[in-house]
């Protein structure tokens, strides 16, 4: 039996395989059914259709700004294996007619390297650093499908859900933390038909195994790892109880030691950002997350001084600015409920987006990240009624993909179809 993860077996005719894939793709788009295609690809097409992916959309979304991309490259664990990947795959790729990409667990490409001409061609279909290549964003593709299934896979020509990717073939493998087993990201090789040959997937698998071994060597087993330095904490911190509510609220609600108070918008943003960065932020880093334009340190210091007078010295510390006790948020509650599969409870606990009126870059990033996580879980797991309920919320009514998925999921006679179609039409979706 040929492996389901390999695009075509040794000795196959790539031209015939390309024609077969293109025919199956056309049949699926017309009828929702296809024959002569690998089950792993057909299942992916079905997921993409349920997610509302448009096969005619030329490029996926850019998920990281230049600044966010710089931070991810600097801080991501896979930065440690980049030299190895370059020596194993990128340098040989200069003459092999292919490019090599490393992405994070959210499907966002962090590095795309290799043949300059191929890179420029790939950029025209959105295959570039900062772009999101999850299945629900870019359709069936090797990096996105490898992450969806947590398994190495090849995607060949017309097996891609997006027509813009049909000239390409790719092979990808997920990369795991050797200590915990969790997915850290994905390694991908993209090029012509030769990337769909069986030996190409074997090469990517071997490179992924070498990268994971390199991580193990660099960081060692958990018991051997040196303890990570932690900021000094104020003595009373261990007994403090703090909670921040930010969903659907312009002014966060802080509950601290049994007392609850509304916060000013700027203080709401600061506490949310510090909660998301438990190791702390310098004044410059906090300023960058709070302001689109460059902000003076004195502005941040003044706001922190006012916030400290409000909540006390035992919750906030400086150099760097950080929390001295855990600060739970209602956004984290929603994430936990989604992870447990308690989708209806998550809906009840999510009255709206994170600080919806805030335009602070760091808050916008958190708001959009939660929205993406919620949508991804719903599109994969939610039933028609729950999907429609989310789509008819204020934030769902501006999401064409969610509206389309809910329309497809509801039975023809459902009265909610009219509302969903009206909102989709208002967005230019019909």
TrEMBL record:
One of its GO terms (biological process) is regulation of DNA-templated transcription. Pfam families: GAF (PF01590). InterPro entries: GAF (IPR003018), GAF-like_dom_sf (IPR029016), OmpR/PhoB-type_DNA-bd (IPR001867). Residues 219-240 are annotated as: Disordered. The keyword Translocase does not apply. GO terms for molecular function: DNA binding. Residues 258-323 form the OmpR/PhoB-type domain. Keywords: DNA-binding. This is GAF domain-containing protein.
């Amino acid at each position: 039996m040929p492996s389901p993860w390999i695009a075509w077996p040794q000795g196959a005719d790539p031209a015939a395989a390309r024609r077969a894939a293109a025919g199956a793709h056309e049949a699926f788009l017309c009828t929702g059914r296809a024959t002569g295609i690998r089950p792993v690809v057909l299942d992916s097409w079905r997921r993409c259709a349920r997610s509302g992916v448009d096969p005619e959309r030329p490029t996926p979304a850019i998920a990281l700004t230049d600044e966010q991309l710089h931070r991810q490259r600097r801080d991501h664990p896979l930065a440690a294996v980049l030299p190895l990947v370059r020596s194993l795959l990128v340098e040989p790729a200069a003459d092999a007619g292919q490019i090599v990409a490393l992405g994070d667990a959210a499907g966002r490409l962090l590095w795309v390297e290799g043949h300059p001409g191929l890179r420029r061609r790939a950029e025209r279909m959105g295959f570039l650093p900062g772009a999101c290549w999850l299945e629900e964003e870019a359709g069936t593709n090797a990096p996105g499908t490898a992450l969806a299934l947590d398994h190495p896979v090849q995607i060949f020509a017309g097996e891609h859900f997006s027509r813009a990717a049909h000239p390409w073939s790719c092979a990808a493998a997920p990369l795991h933390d050797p200590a915990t087993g969790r997915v850290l990201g994905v390694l991908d090789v993209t090029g012509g038909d030769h990337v769909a040959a069986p030996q190409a997937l074997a090469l990517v698998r071997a490179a992924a195994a070498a990268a994971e071994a390199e991580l193990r060597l660099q960081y060692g087993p958990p018991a051997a790892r040196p303890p990570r330095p932690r900021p000094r904490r104020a003595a009373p911190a261990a007994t403090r109880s703090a909670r921040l509510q930010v969903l659907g609220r312009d002014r966060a609600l802080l509950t601290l030691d049994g007392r609850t108070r509304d916060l000013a918008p700027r203080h709401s943003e600061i506490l949310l950002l510090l909660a998301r960065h438990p190791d702390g932020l310098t004044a410059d880093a906090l300023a960058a997350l709070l302001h689109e334009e460059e902000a003076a340190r004195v502005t941040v210091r003044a706001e922190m001084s006012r916030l400290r007078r409000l909540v006390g010295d035992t919750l906030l510390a400086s150099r760097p600015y950080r929390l001295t006790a855990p600060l739970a948020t209602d956004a984290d509650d929603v994430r936990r409920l989604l992870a447990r599969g308690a989708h209806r409870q998550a809906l009840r606990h999510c009255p709206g987006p994170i600080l919806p009126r805030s335009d602070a870059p760091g808050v916008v990033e958190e708001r959009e990240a939660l929205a993406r996580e919620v949508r991804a879980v719903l599109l994969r797991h939610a039933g028609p009624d729950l999907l429609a309920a989310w789509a008819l919320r204020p934030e769902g009514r501006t999401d064409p993909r969610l509206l389309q998925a809910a329309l497809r999921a509801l039975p023809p006679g459902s009265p909610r179809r009219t509302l969903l179609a009206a909102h989709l039409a208002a967005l230019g979706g019909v």
